[in-house]
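Z., the sequence and structure:
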Amino acid sequence: MQKTERIFDNTEIAFSLKNDSELERAYFLFKMISIEPLVKIGTAATNFAIKARLPIEGLIRSTVFDHFCGGVNEDDCLPVIDKMFSKGVSSVLDYSVEGKDIEDEFDAAVIKVLKIIDFAKNIDAIPIAVFKPTGFGRLSLYEKVGSGKKLSENEQLEWAKVVERYDTVCSKAKENDVAVLIDAEESWMQDAADNLVTQMMKKYNKEKPIVFNTLQMYRHDRMDFLKKEHKKAIKENYFLGYKLVRGAYMEKENERAEELGYKSPICESKLATDENFNNGLQYIIDNLERISVFAGTHNEASSYLLMELMDKKGLKNNDSRIWFGQLYGMSDHISFNLANKGYNVAKYMPFGPVKDVMPYLIRRAEENTSVAGQTGRELALLSKEKQRRKNL
């Protein structure tokens, strides 16, 4: 692989699955998202319409939902999954219903993830499952467990159920040979989730990584955490799997740190976060015999870096220990061009009932508005492809 080869500029490969009208819809959506006041008004109006039960699901479905989500259920996602896999891009089905906080809902989430694992075992295009810690238990309970505070008898029973939910899913993943990624969330609940995921790794990663934790590299303590976990895994002889991301809760993290008067866990600058992320990639590639990586990034420089690190080590593009990942509906120029070169690539594909997935979609819109250059880059690439097709 030539270091200078700029594969992400190829829009013909990037948008090969989009027909002209889908290309126009994508351009229109990102154009709308680029206007911050419009996102705020649209968010408020959508929330109001859903609460007032106005008949807007059809409109949402045909625009923003179909761009960023695979469908309302697993079967609904299949045509999209098959289409992407025809270009070498796998799918991570992500049941993106948020904000549930009762035991019945947590049990329902487990059933949903188990169903996805069952669904995945017979479909090569879905090699990985995923869940969020707060899909399986209350955030405040994780926080209390992580802080070492004494739990009441009821809380002890409640936490035992959380542990059981993790174990049920990880056991099923191991049985079906489907990797399971466990997302990271707010730092104040993460210690308990980390400890629990480490327990699952010790139990289920004896032959290879099945259970993957997530490291949010905008946290300045994550490199130390990675190194400590690596030492532990060598000593106790199990494998590690990590999804590396930059992170998704920056404003919330900084606001809480300021409010409660402690040092923010977030890196001091975007540059420091980028360096932390890239150092994480370097460390894992240097220790690939023990650690596997799912690099969840929309950053071109980090993607090129990982390609170069693999090249320097003489690794095959499709080395099973290394995956690249992006969100469905974004950064197709990275996903499809990597897949075209034979790398392992998976798109996180959210799905669920339209109204239940709205908080996820709103976050995507807000994130695209706030991440410098993200929306502009999407628009520039879509424009370039529109022009290319016009010139044919």
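The longest helix spans residues 153-176. The radius of gyration is 21 Å.

Let me know what you think.
H.
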